Every structure is written in C-alpha cells, then in structure tokens.
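Entry type: protein chain
Record version: 2
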Amino acid sequence: MKKISLNNPTGGRLALLTAAVIWGSSFIVMKDAVADVPVFQLLAIRFTLAGLLLAVLFRRRLMKSGKALLGHGALCGVLVLAGYVTQSYGLMTVTPGTNAFLTSVYCVMVPFMAWGLFRKRPTAYNWIAAVLCVTGIGLISLSEDLTLGAGEALTLLSGVFYALHIMALSHFGETDDPISLTIVQFTSAAVLAWGFSLTVEAGSPLPAPAIWPQLLYLTVMATAATLVLQSVGQRLTPPSQSAILLSLESVFGVFFSVLLGRESLTFQLSCGFALIFVSVIVSETQLSFLRRR
C-alpha cells in the first residue's frame, strides 16, 4: 500500500482536497455565526486570532521580510476584508450553497479584470467560461420577474473583491513571502474590522461562550490550517489539478448545506450550480487536463 506523505504528489492533492472540504463546511458555520455575532466583530476576531497564530508559527519568515511587505499586506487586507464583509452580509439572506457558488465566480472574473488593468487579453476558454457562468448565475439568482435579490447581489460583489484580492496576491507574491504577506494582510484586516466594529456596531459585547467553538473553527481550521494546506498542496500539485481540487469548495458547500437540511436542490438550482462549476474549471484549467502532453 502506498504511503501518503505531504512530501509527494498524492499528499499534495490530499492537502488541497482537505482544504476544499473545510472551506465548504465553513459556509454552514459562518451562516450560523452571523446570526448571533455582528459581522465586523466576527471578522475582527477571526482575523486577529488567525494572524496571531500564523505569526507565532512562522515568526522567523516574518522577521526576514522587507518593509515593502507592510504596504502590500495592508492593501490585500483591505480587499480581503471587503470580500468577507459583503459575502457575510449576503449569507444572511441566501443559503450556504448559493453563497458558495456565487462567491466562486471570482475565478471567472480574474482574466477579464486583468484585461482591463494589465491589457492581458482573455482566451477563448475565458469567454466560454464567462457565458457559462452568467447563465448559471441567472438560474440561481434571478427571480421570476428577473430581479436580483440583495443577498445574491452582495455575494456577487464579494466575488469582485476576491478577484481583486487574488490579483494583488499574485502580483505581490512575486517579491514577497506568501506566508508573511498573509500574516500582514490578516493583521490589517483585523485592525480595520475592529475599527468598524467599535463605530458601526457601537462596540457590541463579545460573543457568548456557546459561539466560541464556531469562531475557533473558522479561525483555526477555515483560515489558518487551510492556508497551510493550500501552500503545501499547490507546491506539490500541477496548477490545473490544484484549480480543480480547490474549486470543489463550492461543491462541498452545497453538499453540507443539503446534508444538514439548509436547502433543497431543485432542477433549476442544480443546473445553475453545475454551469458555474464547469465555468470555473474551464477558466482555471483551460481544459489542459484533456489535452495530450
């Protein structure tokens, strides 16, 4: 029997799959958490604890980083907080599965944003993915009178912020250590979130003890642990395979939502989910896994 290790391709794929499962389950946990904890306070706690945990684990890498990391991390922190805030408010009025799939459209957005910012033209695969994605969004989000609900609109807006965040990480990752960049962005996001919590939410009291297991799961598992798993997995796995495994996050989001009775799958929803999933695969991999070497 082949031994599974995080130092071989099998271990790398397992790490990415585990990250996708955890992220998929986090939509359920987040749905319950935002019902009891103000959004900015929840995110402030999540980013603070995750940043501290990673800073302790990777303090040597952080100390070796240059001063430019502070500015880069601050910008990434603003973008990631904007993404989480809009996604969290959207999650209040849509199901976890819908939130998971509508968030995942950032993968399709990135090539077109790069076209506008860096003049890098999208490929034919990106255009095909865009058509599939828009069709899927319509099936999931539009009501009978062809209007978009507030929750769906906020979730799609979070996808825009996540796409900008991915582009910033990709750009700064060429010069900055990715783990150190993540620590700084989490810290920046935490500072901003605490500021908004103390003003917009009028300094709400800390969450009740019964909520802390959910907060710790979001912090330790869905933030810090998944970051490490993703870093290890992508180092050992080809990009096209990594994209497929990570995109399963939305599938697991629906799986856990249906399993726990949070939503029922209709034929229309299933078609919408399927189209968005295929669009992400097409955009991220360019179907390279189907072509001969």
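Comment: The mean pLDDT is 87.
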